[in-house]
Write the structure tokens for this entry.
Amino acid sequence: MPFVSIGGITLHHRYIEATGISRPIIFINSLGTDFRIWDDVVARLEGEMPMLVYDKRGHGLSDIGNGVHSIDNHVDDLLGLIDHFGFDKVVLFGLSVGGLIAQRLYTRHPKCVEALILSDTAHKIGTAESWNTRIATVERDGIEAIADGVLQVWFTPDFHARRAAELAGCRNMLIRQALPGYIGTCAAVRDADLTDAARRIAAPTLCIVGDQDGSTPPDLVRSLADLIPGARFEVIRNAGHIPCIEQPEALVTLIRDFVASLPEGKSDHE
């Protein structure tokens, strides 16, 4: 299993190469998940573009180090990964809190970001009250106390009805996350407001949302797209908060189309 130490934090990751193409796409996870959520997407895109998936700090098999205190902790780790691999320009795909990490990284180091794909995310997610309530519940009773409610917004009723085994697996993934990483990232999302930063994004940007996302609904994601000059906005039908699991084929189609539209979206030898 591939691990790398970034600033004293051991990060679990997987890098999938693609011959003749130099610019990678980096997938940044949502809260309470690990990089296995990208399996169906990576399988469909393998060979078409280099891809990096990783478990962010305090999630999956990655360390938490001295904790998660802000979105910048996650950004620092990702910048360390980019430097470790020697990437010049990257496409960042951020899902939910991953979208906040992507936006903040762009704010700090715009020259290394070729483009942004922001899925089921926003410039500000939730309220201080809602996050404080969640944090207090998890501190008292554990992640399992909120798991069923989280799964209701992660996936559509059809997914719940027809894909019971996958639903159970996703529940296991959620409740087995380390409490300090989950709680710290909840607080980081609570404190993040990238409204002004979004207005200054100059990179090509695609905003995506599942039509039944109960966590960051379509109107909220559209408001993010409206802030970012020239951003595209796309809705994936029959999907909740995590389209990469529920509708990977539709998501891959959007990724392919967007990456192909970029000035350097083709292989180096074309």
Observations:
- The longest strand covers residues 9-16.
- Strands lie at 3-6, 9-16, 25-28, 51-54, 90-95, 113-119, 205-210, 232-236.
- DSSP finds twelve helices and eight strands in the chain.
